[in-house]
Design a protein that fits this description.
two-stranded antiparallel sheet, globular, about 230 residues, alpha+beta, Glutaredoxin, about 15% strand
């Protein structure tokens, strides 16, 4: 008897650790699917919204100086250490982290992800998330400007006029996404990435960006306990 396991992947599109986690989880899923071709478990990823900086403005501010001030007490040395570390982590996952650009409110990015997920399903939602990540972290684009969102939608195969209609109506899907963010907080999510893998007997919660091996181990445990 087959079993569907939902993987709830809670992210913010301006969190580098969620970018790393998504890459690693994707690798783990590919690995587990190819090594368990007759597995009774079908894994589905569902993206859930979280805002690290809900009070950030829509316009935003310079990412480098914001990071240095907010996270590293204006220390150039600590900022350089962080950049060296993230660059190394990124290189392992074929991510070319850059540190310029803008930190800004991500609510509209989450609104887009949820809309595509509802309308078009997991695969296209995943492509939207990938595009938002690469635009922000590797191309220094604004995380939720209309042109960024439109590119993410069209990268995922959404017709431009349909995507533009949704993006331009800033209220469409807004209440739903705000409710989901509140639900995540009510469920105790206070940092991202936060991954819950549903199992037949129990659920597994993975907080922070885990290694590929740890995601593999968890997925295989779900398969093992599905009988």
């Amino acid at each position: 008897m087959g079993y569907d396991s939902q993987i709830s992947f809670t992210l913010d599109t301006i969190c580098p650790w969620t970018y790393l986690a998504k890459r690693r989880l994707s690798k783990a899923l590919d690995q587990v699917r190819s090594s368990n071709p007759s597995s009774p478990v079908t894994f589905h990823v569902k993206f859930m919204p979280y805002q690290l900086y809900p009070d950030a403005s829509k316009e935003g501010e310079a990412k480098y100086s914001w990071y240095k001030r907010a996270k590293y007490n204006d220390s150039e040395e600590k900022m350089k250490m962080y950049m060296t570390l993230m660059s190394a982590y990124g290189a392992n996952e074929d991510i070319d982290f850059k540190f310029g650009g803008t930190v800004a409110n991500t609510l509209d990015a989450h609104r887009l992800i949820q809309w595509v997920q509802e309308e078009n399903g997991e695969e296209q939602a995943s492509k939207v998330v990938d595009s938002l990540y690469s635009q922000y972290f590797e191309n220094e684009k604004h995380p939720s400007a209309s042109e960024t969102l439109l590119k993410a939608a069209t990268d995922a195969g959404i017709p431009e006029n349909k995507a533009k209609g949704f993006i331009d109506d800033e209220y469409e899907g807004l209440l739903d996404v705000k409710m989901l963010i509140r639900e995540q907080a009510a469920n105790g999510v206070d940092a991202v990435p936060h991954v819950i893998v549903e199992g037949k007997r129990r659920d597994f919660t993975l907080e922070g960006a885990k290694d590929v091996e740890e995601y593999v181990k968890t997925l295989e445990q779900v398969i093992k306990e599905s009988g």
